[in-house]
Amino acid sequence: MPSITFLVDVDNTLLDNDSVKANWDDHLQTVPGPNLAKRFWDLYEQVRKEKGGVDIPAALTRFREQTSNAEMDEQTYLHIRSLFEHYPFDKALYPYALGTIKHLKTIGQVVIVSDGDLYFQAEKIFNSSLANAVDGKVLLYTHKQEHLDEIMQHYPADHYVIIDDKPDILADAKKVLGPKLTTVAVKQGKYAVRQLLEQFVPDITVDHIGDLRGYTAEQFLSPSQG
Fold it and tell me: Beta strand pairing status for 4-8 and 109-115?
């Protein structure tokens, strides 16, 4: 049997990141109020466009710099920062997320490969018990599809399976690895309501991450026959 390495995404794949953001917004609407909540999310998007990815620490720092003490005192700002830094991410895992990882580990090695700022995304992955679930096999990149050669050097295998909610990442990875890769689209989160790329069809599509608990090695290696 060929060796398999699973490359598993985090946000909206293993963890309900949309609900986390909605919960953060609820707190922001209540604590600093609607006007400052809007300012924060505007800065969040501004930083994302500038850096090509989410960077919450940078957004929080810019929020402090662009908000006077009269509008928001330091105690309130530290409270807001704590909401992000000490969020109970283990409560945001999708049903059967950890069970799915456990099942995939019976088939091959499982590696979390996530996008995001190196500090905050790492905190999220470790605080949610995901890092422990994959025995510390965690890689973080701004754009992970640009680092496939590096990922394969870290975790060599005969075949790879990438599991993600973003069709563009799946498509980019397929272009690079071709038949050496099986793409799995998980229809969770905001990307689930978007149409898959017109010229790209994932090898496997599931509604929920937990659906993969019933898949065999053969189905991942030859999805067209599964």
Answer: parallel
